[in-house]
């Protein structure tokens, strides 16, 4: 047990920082999820709709899967309820008819326009614990970590 303690109790600074990021992220995602849940919505599905919107309203499923960090097989499963609810639809890719694209529908756009302002407000309320300079520093540090690929 003593040997195990060095991996779970006495952490080097970089590991303590890593778990600080993980714990804080989980807490902030929880704030966002609580908001979505209060509206009867699912944050993961909203994220998919947001990614489609960021892509201009149309995206290949494989690109969408990469952006949200799931497999190509899983993205199909995740898209089914969004299409059933009328928030997305699929259409042939204009450049390659063998491929399908996921499109954001007017209903999907309206959902985002109605729901995102409130979500952004609850997230901002938590993030406002940091001042502007601290937020800029945080973003800079996070970007530095993201660039360091192995």
Task: Give descriptors for this structure.
150 residues, mainly alpha, Arc Repressor Mutant, subunit A, 7 helices, 3 strands
Q: What does it look like?
A:
The structure is a single chain. This protein has 150 residues and is mainly α. The chain has a domain at 42-141: Winged helix-like DNA-binding domain superfamily/Winged helix DNA-binding domain (Arc Repressor Mutant, subunit A, Orthogonal Bundle), CATH 1.10.10. The protein has seven helices and three strands. The chain has helices at residues 2-8, 13-38, 43-54, 61-68, 72-84, 106-127, 132-147; strands at 58-59, 88-92, 100-104. Strands 1-3-2 form a three-stranded antiparallel β-sheet. A hairpin with a 7-residue loop joins strand 2 (88-92) and strand 3 (100-104). Helix 2 crosses helix 6 (106-127) and helix 4 packs across helix 5 (72-84). The chain is globular, with a radius of gyration of 19 Å. This is MarR family winged helix-turn-helix transcriptional regulator. Residues 1-147 form the HTH marR-type domain. Keywords: DNA-binding.
């Amino acid at each position: 047990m003593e040997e195990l303690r060095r991996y779970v109790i006495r952490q080097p600074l970089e590991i303590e920082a890593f778990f600080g990021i993980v714990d804080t992220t989980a807490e902030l995602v929880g704030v966002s999820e609580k908001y979505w849940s209060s509206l009867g919505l699912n944050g993961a599905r909203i994220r998919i709709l947001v990614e489609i919107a960021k892509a201009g309203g149309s995206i290949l499923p494989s690109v969408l899967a990469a952006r949200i960090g799931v497999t190509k097989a899983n993205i199909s499963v995740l898209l089914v309820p969004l299409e059933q609810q009328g928030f997305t639809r699929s259409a042939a890719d204009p450049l390659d008819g063998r491929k399908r694209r996921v499109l954001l529908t007017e209903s999907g756009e309206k959902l985002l326009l109605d729901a995102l302002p409130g979500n952004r407000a609850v997230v901002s309320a938590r993030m406002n614990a940091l001042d502007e300079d601290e937020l800029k520093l945080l973003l800079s540090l996070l970007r530095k970590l993201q660039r360091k690929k192995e």
